[in-house]
Amino acid sequence: MAYEYDDQNIFAKILRGEIPNDTVLETEHTLAFNDIAPQAPVHVLVIPKGPYVCHDHFALSASEAQIADFTQAIGQVCRLKGVQPGEGGNGFRLISNAGADGVQEVPHMHVHILGGRDLGRMLAQE
Ligand code: 5GP
User: What is the pTM assigned to this prediction?
Assistant: First the structure.
């Protein structure tokens, strides 16, 4: 079953400028903006500008230029937010939820960058 991208999702509307966002970084292929409901002092969403549903869709379908731009944008946001553990920051976590089991809310590929506090263990214990 092929991915079908819904261009009415909220991040598509942000990319079209129909909904405002608090931009942290914009590059040729990528937009990073603060999450509207932050779960940590640093909570930035990084999205590709292309119509990809989730991470595997992006990883297997996007161009090398798009993937390189996206990966570098994540590093740039970490630098801008001062969370790089090798550069005096205290670290961060990357999360990319996908599909039902991943509890993905918005069906446009995104990575969460979380930091600014101790984030605890990766998953809640069952
Ligand atoms: P998901 O569960 O899909 O990985 O996460 C979606 C994220 O998008 C959530 O953290 C939610 O707070 C955020 N979000 C939903 N709607 C908006 C919006 O209109 N603007 C921004 N900046 N973030 C949003």
Answer: 0.97
